[in-house]
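Whiteboard transcription, Tuesday session. T.W. wrote the structure tokens on the left side:
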């Protein structure tokens, strides 16, 4: 894994991956900054600005590994952003696969755990979920059709430093952090009983690197064994809770497939409860 390309390398997860990889590898990032930020740049990484659909024109070297994280990644918002979903996910990922095919790179694709949601119905619940499901099938077909070396990972509700905390693309934990700091009610989408397996970004990165080194094939779910409802997470933060109307595409639960990643020696090292407790303690100190 000497020369690595990370699509979405200026994003939340991508920047943490770059930060770890640059310790031992030559690392390049391709990002259009749709949700990424220059504030996430890591010293020693070569940053290239552009869309994945233009990857063949923008990248003039043959990487050993491509971590493909650079896709549209919000469920409810995807109903409004369907054109972006198709451009960034469908066209962009096709071009990345063609690039991997032509360069001989191994591709590590970040699939979406939404396809395991609600007994498998989740894969059609939103434009985002559908596009990610189709792309995971396309990755497998490229392996069958053209011999592309691949592994597909699935993340479960990632949280941690540098997650988006404001605006339409903010994560749940990021939103709660901001509202706690501002002493505002925590907004919970009804019914609040949606089950999630919140997984720290450091644990995600450890899993991704293991898969890149030793993994092959599908179903590398990287997720904490702990599961909580959205309402329970809000209650851990404390304070007033305000319910929002139900939203399309918001799955109630999802199977957490971690057998294959654990067979590589992966274990989660972080707990969402401990993380929230530390956030609350830090917030109290700032108030004092």
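and on the right, the sequence the group agreed on:
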């Amino acid at each position: 894994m000497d020369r690595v390309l990370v699509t979405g390398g200026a994003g939340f997860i991508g920047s943490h991956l770059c930060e770890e990889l640059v310790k031992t590898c030559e690392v390049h990032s391709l990002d259009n900054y749709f949700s990424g930020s220059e504030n996430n740049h890591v010293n020693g990484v070569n940053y290239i600005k552009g869309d994945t659909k233009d990857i063949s024109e923008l990248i003039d070297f043959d990487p050993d590994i491509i971590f493909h994280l650079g896709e549209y990644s919000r469920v409810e918002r995807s109903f409004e952003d369907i054109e972006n979903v198709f451009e960034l996910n469908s066209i962009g990922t096709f071009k990345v696969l063609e690039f991997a095919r032509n360069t001989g790179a191994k591709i590590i694709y970040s699939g979406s755990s939404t396809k395991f949601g609600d007994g498998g119905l989740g894969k059609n619940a939103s434009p985002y979920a559908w596009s990610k499901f189709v792309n995971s099938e396309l990755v497998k077909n490229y392996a069958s059709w053209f011999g592309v070396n691949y592994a597909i990972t699935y993340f479960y509700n990632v949280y941690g430093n540098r997650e988006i905390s404001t605006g339409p693309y903010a994560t749940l934990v990021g939103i709660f952090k901001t509202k706690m700091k501002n002493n505002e009610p925590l907004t919970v989408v009804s019914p609040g009983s949606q089950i999630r397996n919140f997984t720290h970004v450091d644990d995600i990165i450890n899993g991704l690197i293991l898969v890149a080194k030793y993994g092959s094939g599908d179903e590398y779910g990287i997720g904490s064994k702990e599961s909580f409802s959205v309402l329970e997470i809000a209650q851990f933060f404390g304070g007033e809770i305000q319910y929002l109307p139900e939203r399309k595409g918001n799955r109630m639960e999802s199977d957490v497939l971690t057998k294959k990643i654990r067979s590589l020696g992966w274990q989660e090292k972080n707990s969402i409860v401990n993380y929230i407790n530390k956030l609350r303690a830090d917030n109290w100190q700032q108030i004092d």
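Someone added at the bottom: The chain has one domain: 3-287.
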